[in-house]
Amino acid sequence: MSVRVSVPRVGRRLASSPGMPRRAHPFAGPAAGATLRGLAWALLSCIAFGLSGTLAKGLMATGWSPLTTVSVRVGGAALLMGLPALWFMRHRLGVLRRHAGLIVGYGVIAVASTQLCYFLAVQTLPVAVALLIEYLAPIIIVGWLWARHGQRPGPLTVLGAVLAMTGLALVLGITGAVPVDLVGIGWALGAAVSLAGYFLLAAKPAPDLPPLVLVGVGMGVGTLTLLTIAALRVLPWQWSSAPVPMGPWVVSPLVPLTLLVLVTAVVAYTAGLFAARSLGSRVASFVSLVEVLAAVLFAWLFLAEVPGATQALGGVAILLGAIAVKVAETRSA
Question: Where do the record's region annotations for Disordered lie (predicted)?
């Protein structure tokens, strides 16, 4: 059934009068379209990123080390994206030199550090717990903006930080309800700091540097960083050809490795960068909290990992705290 709304003639004359300003519809126009596209990119990135911990933990259960797993993931993405990006920029190398700091920072922090710390964390922590700790990144961003740019947090931001810290205490089992692995917690906190850097770097203005070039060349820098760590033997380098159990299936390790490269690297980073460019670091980091729900779902389906009641309550508190922080930042912006 359709409903017609008639507008009085006087209203139509007033609305069309050149002297009367027109009110823009909040969900119309180019800006709204860009926002919706940014949200779509952000959700796609969240789902793709949310699968990475489950795939990596399945491989590590059969003998793969975190460093080897993340190196294959990032190295495969570098081959698929980095080489075409360099070919595309072969006549514009000056752009790459001008943004060398951004590219190196993106490759080292956003690519290598974030995922290596996260994979090291899921080795000893449940996927959901490691990711919840990592998603303290919005709180870290607030602290960075306060310390670096003097943006003092308001009451709602402080409330969000308190909620997040309370939730962190519950998730980490400080109450004694769940066991605590200090090494895994340390790696997860490292992933949180790196993720905050990822959001800030991805939203940095670079209009003459195509986003796919930043991702592709950044993957190459990340690969070199990980291979340097392997060469220094700081972390073990191990792999296995044993089949990988994934829920009701047992598959070749090529299956999770392919998904790690194509879905959780190529798709996830590309979509995440487009989202950050469209939405900004604050909104993109807010929407990225959906990744926690995706990761919990994938871990339940393929690893039979279900958070306990205490951890679930702590997770809700962390998410509410992050939401409060992002709402406060959006209002101030």
Answer: 1-22
Q: What is the DSSP string of 42-61?
A: HHHHHHHHHTHHHHHHHHHT
User: Smallest Cα–Cα separation from 238: which of 253, 249, 252, 223?
Assistant: 253
Q: Are the C-beta atoms of residues 74 and 219 closer than 8 Å to each other?
A: yes
Q: What is the DSSP letter of 235?
A: S
Q: Residues near 290 by Cβ (< 8 Å), separated by ≥ 6?
A: 42, 43, 46, 47, 50
Measured between alpha carbons, how far is residue 264 from residues 45, 55, 70, 261 in Å? 8, 9, 11, 6
Alpha-carbon distance of 25 to 21, in angstroms, equals 13
End-to-end CA distance of the chain: 41
Which amino acid appears at position 214 of this protein? L
Helix (H) or strand (E) holding 301: helix 290-303
Domains of the chain: which residue ranges?
Answer: 42-238+252-332
Burial class of residue 83, CB neighbours in 10 A (0-12, 13-18, 19+)? middle
Per-residue pLDDT of the chain (333 residues; tens, 9 = 90+): 433 333 333 333 333 344 444 444 444 455 666 778 888 888 899 899 999 999 999 999 999 999 999 999 999 999 999 999 999 999 999 999 999 999 999 999 989 999 999 999 999 988 888 888 887 887 888 788 778 777 777 888 888 888 888 888 777 765 444 566 889 999 999 999 998 887 788 667 788 888 889 889 999 999 999 999 999 999 999 999 999 999 889 999 999 999 999 999 999 888 887 887 777 766 776 677 788 888 888 998 999 888 777 778 888 888 888 778 767 766 665
Distance CA 319, CA 34 (A): 26
Q: Specify which residues 251 forms β-bridges with.
A: 244
Q: pTM to 2 decimals?
A: 0.80
